[in-house]
Amino acid sequence: QVIRAFTDNDKAEEAFRWSLNLLSRMMVRVVNEGSTIVMKAINLNSAKSLRKAISCAPRGKRALWMLNIQVGTQSISPFVWAIETGSLDAANAIIVDLLTIRADRDRYYYGMDSLFERHPDIIKRLCVDAPALLPTLLDGLIWRSRVTDAGLRRVNYYIKHFVVDADGGFSPAIEWITDNKDPTIVCHPVVAMVTDIVWTQVAFRGFLLGKAWFLFTLLVFVLSQSILKHVEHDVADAAASDAEKASGMPVEPSRHVEDLRITIFICRCFIYTCSLGQGLVHHASCVMKDCRAKNFMKVGCLKLPMYLTNWQDRVNLCLMFFLCLMLCMEPILHCMGQSEEGALFGEDCAAGDQLSFAYSVMTTIAVLLYFLLLSDLSVFSTRVSAFVLVCGRVVSEVLLFLFGLTFLVVAFACAISSLEHESDDFDGMPQSGLNLLRVTLGMFTGTHYDKLEDSPALMIVIIVFIIISVIFLTNLLIAQLNCAYQTCYQNMVGFARLNRGKIVYETMPTVSKKRWEGFLKRLRLEERVEFGEGDIGLAGGVQVLEPASANITTKDMIRR
């Protein structure tokens, strides 16, 4: 009737009727073929209904019923459908059923391979859409024997799909779990075992080789800026003193001093060429890469390259900036040909003396930045890494304390400057602020306190400041640090493992194909792992022995 209102063409009416008929038949077919008992149970979000529905399936086809429904040329996954529609109870029941080991007289049945072959990105999907299901999935990848021998229990970890992908490369599962930033999940035995195995047998060597160059650069920098400089001065002073005692006349620098100056010059050339040059190339390539991909982050009104979200890249960029300033202020370059006494690579000249203090300040900051980047090596020990991460997380409380202390010092310095008194220690705002800071840090001596007796009003103000800053604010800082540490302590091992997981997946692209294939060969993931003596089980796992009291198991985990 609607088409009749717009046209009198019989063919158009017939075509529209045929289209509606075709669509109705397609919908009927989809409903008939897709409305399985499993899908009905998923729509009800009932784990009991799902178990009842799947109990009708043969053991060899249970996984197929839960992972694939074919409607014509299209296929859908009931498991993914349950996740996308929020039927998490049904999805949880599917995971439990898939990862339950069943057995008959001929073989074992385990849905791990079917699950990961049908959904290679299942870990990523769960991290994004249903993180509550991750513990269930990971628990299903562990088998524990109920039989113990000499106080030990067999445990099989089926980690194949967490280690290697379908193409034989490193699986991105660890990267997905690490990017999820859940400190609880990374402490799960399956994730911890995969991370530790890959770290100790593959990634550790590549990471150490990558850091060896940085360590060598740091040693050269410390040698040139903190050690040889003082050795040169000591040698020069000793040689000059001995020569003056012998002849009574000043002498030219000894050969040993010139050798030290040449060594310092070579070390600094190495720093400016290799460390600074390499850093500038790295940052230039990262900036170009982010600019081409239009990958930026917004900080206020500024757009910065996304790679600067990593704190190490930010610190490294600051280090490069201070190394550039050091190169511009280098006393050896400014004194080239102008050094007193004609010394080779000397730093004693008018231009060098003017820049020496500023150069030393830049050097001090650069050394601190070098050692800050060195904290990345704490990943070698989970305990040390956890301590470093906890320290980083409680720094915010210290900064709040410093902000409050600064406010108090400025406020009381202004108040004391407006007060009539005769104390020279608190004469003016700068002097008052400096001495108030000394009072807080316990550097204000008793002699200075005695002088306050001549100014009772000033003494009262100082006492009030001590009560607020030393008694109240300092103890408040202790309480804040205690609470913050208690909060972080529960998850500090998890944060350490997150850090290790990140380094593992960032290091793996540098591992050679030969070394990776050798690692997979040693794991022997294609060989079947025993459930007991003479009971050859399933492939894709690694067997370890754990204390019998660690995870008490009294029921056979295999349904026979």
Polypeptide structure, described:
The protein is mostly helical. It starts with a helix and ends with a strand. The mean pLDDT is 83. It has helices at residues 2-6, 10-34, 37-44, 47-54, 62-67, 78-84, 88-98, 112-118, 122-129, 134-139, 160-163, 173-179, 189-247, 255-293, 311-329, 331-334, 350-374, 382-417, 429-441, 446-451, 456-489, 492-507, 513-523; strands at residues 69-71, 74-76, 101-103, 108-109, 142-149, 152-157, 296-299, 302-305, 528-532, 535-539, 542-547, 558-559. Strand 3 and strand 4 form a beta hairpin. The strands form 5 sheets. The protein has a 3-stranded mixed β-sheet, with no helix packed on it. The protein has 23 helices and 12 strands.
Largest β-sheet summary? 3 strands, mixed
- How helical, in percent, are the residues? 55-70%
Separate helix tally: 23
Q: Detail the poorly predicted runs.
A: none
The pLDDT mean sits at 83
| Rg measurement, Å | 36 Å
Question: How many runs of DSSP E, i.e. beta strands?
Answer: 12
Key structural traits:
560 residues, mainly alpha, three-stranded antiparallel β-sheet, elongated
Question: How is the topology of this model organized?
Answer:
Blueprint: H1 2-6, H2 10-34, H3 37-44, H4 47-54, H5 62-67, E1 69-71, E2 74-76, H6 78-84, H7 88-98, E3 101-103, E4 108-109, H8 112-118, H9 122-129, H10 134-139, E5 142-149, E6 152-157, H11 160-163, H12 173-179, H13 189-247, H14 255-293, E7 296-299, E8 302-305, H15 311-329, H16 331-334, H17 350-374, H18 382-417, H19 429-441, H20 446-451, H21 456-489, H22 492-507, H23 513-523, E9 528-532, E10 535-539, E11 542-547, E12 558-559
Parallel strand pairs: 3-12
Antiparallel strand pairs: 1-2, 3-4, 5-6, 6-11, 7-8, 9-10
Helix pairs in contact: 3-4, 4-7, 6-7, 12-22, 13-14, 13-17, 13-22, 14-15, 15-17, 18-19, 18-21, 18-22, 19-21
